[in-house]
Amino acid sequence: MLKSLRAEGFLVFGALAFAFNGIISKLVLTSGLSAWRLTQVRCTGAFLILLIYVLIRKGASLKTSRTELPWLAVYGVIGFAAVQVGYFIAIARMHVSIALIIEFTAPIWIVLYIRFVRKKFVPKLMWLSIALGFSGLLLVAQVWRGMTLDGIGVIAAFLDAFALAAYFLLGEKLGAQRSTDTLTVWGLGFATLVWAIATPLWSFPTKVFSEKINLLGIFSNYDSPGWVLILWIIVMGTIVPYISILHGLKQLSASTSSVIGMLEPVFAGAFAWWWLSEIWRPIQLIGGVVVIVGIITADRARSAAH
User: Fold this and answer.
1) Is residue 124 packed enough to be buried (19+ CB in 10 Å), middle (13-18) or exposed (0-12)?
2) 68: which of 4, 205, 222, 288 is 20 to 30 A away, CA to CA?
3) Taking residues 76-94, what's their average pLDDT?
4) pTM
């Protein structure tokens, strides 16, 4: 029971850190740095910092086998790079709320995969938890306020959802034999390679590091050096949440973990309301409560399965 609560705590913290990172990333994007370049510096910086840390503490643990290496490559390319590419294409062509709702269909695809591909038992409570969580997100995102669909955007958003599902499933599989920090190093390493090929580092707009960036919202009277915000994105917005989620995956299933991940849009809306003074309507609060009920139901479903 204690291990389960600890794992859930890691997953909730991971969702919280990712949500807050969205606010910090938004500040950096106002400087003119593209979302693609921000993702590149995020992945590359996190990879280098974590790689040095692991090499100093336990370098030998990074060793892999010919059998595992292809899985690590798939994990990095799909679970790290493809998730972000799909998301950026989707939000560039559609309303953000629509893109998020499609992305967080990931728990549905995970449960369908477990039931019909792995042919394992899925408790009825797990189906109910997904329905509750997804319904809550519809209320939080208020999709009826921006129901504009685009063919390519919808395809990208669904590919993003499939990639996110693969991230949880592969993380569950690979995390059983490998520590969370070394698994994250490999994932970020392959994602960094993808971004290095797509957008060469030598053309990176380095002026963003020395630029003064306004903190907007309730902190609009203050500026921050670009390098401080980017360092936060690398450490607290990438390394910490990814490792936290993998810690949770070690104790919980991919399906339960992905449902808990639905908290991210809820936290993101709360942070945007607090920091950027974005409107937070009663219907969104109700949606947040429904998501939490869905997560509680997912936990009961996991207990029932055991």
Assistant:
1) exposed
2) 4
3) 86
4) 0.88
